[in-house]
Request: fold
Amino acid sequence: MKNLPISTQSFEILRQTDCVYVDKTKHIFELIKNGRVYFLSRPRRFGKSLLISTFEELFKGNKRLFEGLYIYDKWVWSEKYPIIHLDFADLAYNTPEELKLTLNNFLNKTAAANSASLQDDMPVSVKFSELIEKLYSKTGQRVVVLVDEYDKPITDNLSNKEVLSSNKTILHDFYQVIKAKDKYIKFVFLTGVSKFSGVSIFSGLNNLMDITLSDKFAGICGYTQEELEENFKEYIYLLSEKLKRSKEDVLKEIRRWYNGYSWDGMTTVYNPFSTLLLFADNIFTNYWFRTGTPTFLIELLKSRNQLRGIFEPIVVENVAFDGYDEENIDTVSLLFQTGYLTIKQRKLNFGSPEYTLAAANFEVKDSLVKYLLNAYSNFPLNALRDLQTNIHNQIQTMDAKNLSKSIYQLFVNIPYTLHISKEAYWHSLFLATMNLLGFVFKGDVLTNIGRIDAVWEQPDFAVICEIKYDEKKELEKMLETAFAQIDDRRYYETYLYSGRKIILLAVAFNGKAVKCKFKELDKK
Reply:
């Protein structure tokens, strides 16, 4: 078995230490063959740094590292290029002075490594321009520019408007050098989490080809289903042995937890960070979300009257992906670019692209809802296990009074301004909460004459749930309407011959008020 490349961002180290490498060099070859200046946005922990490192070793001509890979017999290894590899994860940028100083040090260090020197006391943009020209002059080869996490000086200072504005100006002047020195440049590749719009840092670099939503490169980061099964077959086998479950069941569970990311609505990929940790620990849990405290994101969502996309899919136009204005961040754009929402479907609507966004998978939705419930309701995260046990017992014993209290306990502190006055919202909120607590309710279950709001199937019983919301109606009347709908449309018919007890559950919301009622179906 090959080693797992956990937190390995260096292509050289990965290949030298016999780690699993999911071959992405076909994508890399196509990029280099068909263009020169690229931008790719992907969420954190998605392999962007490894991709940049792979480009670097390729342009250095390190042939031995690519043996056995797609590109090995297609590359001209005798050609080697000077490289400027700028990784903002290694720089300081908490003040504009820090940013200028560390950029200056980086440029001097890169020049020295190539036996060149730069003028002192010059703006960093001027020194960057000088470095490109000197590397070209010294080697006779055009320069490769690789920039990783290009946007960190912006995204890490969103709450500090003064630093944000100054850093933006510095980066605008710095990046526009790439276009100005185009004749000296062989290849450019920039990565980041976000793409900023308007008169921002990209306005001086308007010759970039953005491949973020490209069909051809939808799988350039992350693992496709085929790649997962081919490259990690031994680890999948070990996981199924430990869990004492079939390979098919294990693959289904891996897919539910960590698959589902898509940038074209067709090709789905696994989060590589979470997948590797799963195979290392052999435990299904939340890996990606907990690597960084989502304080800024949670606070932003709390401050906005917008939870669409989290509890139910949201349809957006192409403009949502053009970038976002760091001075006035759109919530949906932020959730998409940071990986909390992904493209589930893309279609043409009157000739224009239309995208359906939703949470990528169970890991993302479970975690985000959990933190949101904690932030909105002040319900302690460590108390959710007790609440789960209570709700399970309340459903089994058909304890409507205490189930109503449990649901109210979760929802009571959610600000009224965040509520959406639509039954679909309360339906989604209830389902998200139940699924968060471990109750795998299936939503919108189709029958021959209707659509069941939710079904929870257990070995001994099945719960058929109808949810109602109306600010003007009494709770008791809504419960009666819910039971009448279940009866009229015979939602229970599919489950009549399963041998299980059938529990009918009606849930009614009126503002923050909630009331539940149970009935056991008489099969006679």
About this structure: The chain is about 40% helix and 15% strand. Residues 378-520 form a domain with the Trna Endonuclease; Chain: A, domain 1 fold (CATH 3.40.1350).
